[in-house]
Specification:
By secondary structure, this protein is of the alpha+beta class. It is built from 2 helices and 9 strands. The protein has a domain of 139 residues. Strands 1, 2, 3, 4, 5, 6, 7, 8 and 9 form a 9-stranded antiparallel β-sheet that branches. Strand 5 and strand 6 form a beta hairpin.
Length: 199
């Protein structure tokens, strides 16, 4: 009888020891990090929310068409004519700044009524600069490069286009300006220039 009691006591004692070890192991595991330094925990929630993507700036775009009929009358007699056309995009920033860039091309029919060895320009780079105001878009043109290199406009486009100022409502609209410039030596540059703005 005593031998049987000792056997059950041993079984209970070992069972108690095993339960105690399992409890200690679970406690230690709950307080430790299973991932070594530098290894991210796949189940962890990030402490900081990702930064929001900045909202892109919305730029409005308009279509601009320019047509210009020009002439250059020489004080010694004779004249030359050249007609120009450009279609380009104009961008309006949220700040109201108006910018654009295009290439004006000479139309067929440029001519002088006298023999000339000068080379007529075929293309002229134009920049559009201006601002949106309470009435619409106010802008002007700034000339850039001329092609072919070394050529010049025999009419009056280059001499007059930079002097023009346009102001159109911010919708489909058209405006025409005429300009005449007389130089100190008596030459006369004249132009009639129309611009059409489309939304």
């Amino acid at each position: 009888m005593m031998g049987a009691v000792r056997w059950w006591l041993k079984v209970l004692m070992w069972a108690g020891i095993l339960l105690l070890c399992a409890g200690v192991g679970a406690f230690v595991a709950s307080r430790s990090n299973p991932f070594p330094p530098g290894v991210p925990d796949p189940g962890a929630v990030p402490s900081e929310s990702p930064s929001a993507t900045p909202t892109p700036v919305e730029v409005e775009v308009r279509s601009l068409r320019l047509v210009s009929r020009t002439s250059h009358t020489y004080h010694v007699g004779g004249s030359c004519t050249s007609d120009w056309e450009m279609v380009t995009a104009v961008r309006i920033a949220p700040s109201g700044r108006v910018r654009g860039r295009g290439v004006a091309r000479v139309r067929p029919g440029d001519a002088c009524d006298f023999p000339s060895a000068q080379v007529q320009a075929r293309r002229i780079v134009l920049r559009v600069v201006g601002r949106r105001d309470g009435r619409g878009l106010a802008f002007r043109f700034v000339t850039g490069g001329v092609l072919p290199p070394g050529s010049q406009d025999l009419g009056g486009f280059l001499e007059t286009v930079e002097t023009l100022r346009f102001s159109l409502p911010d919708r489909t609209a058209r405006e025409t300006k005429s300009k005449e410039i007389t130089t100190p030596n008596g030459d006369v540059f004249a132009s009639t220039t129309s611009v059409r703005l489309r939304r």
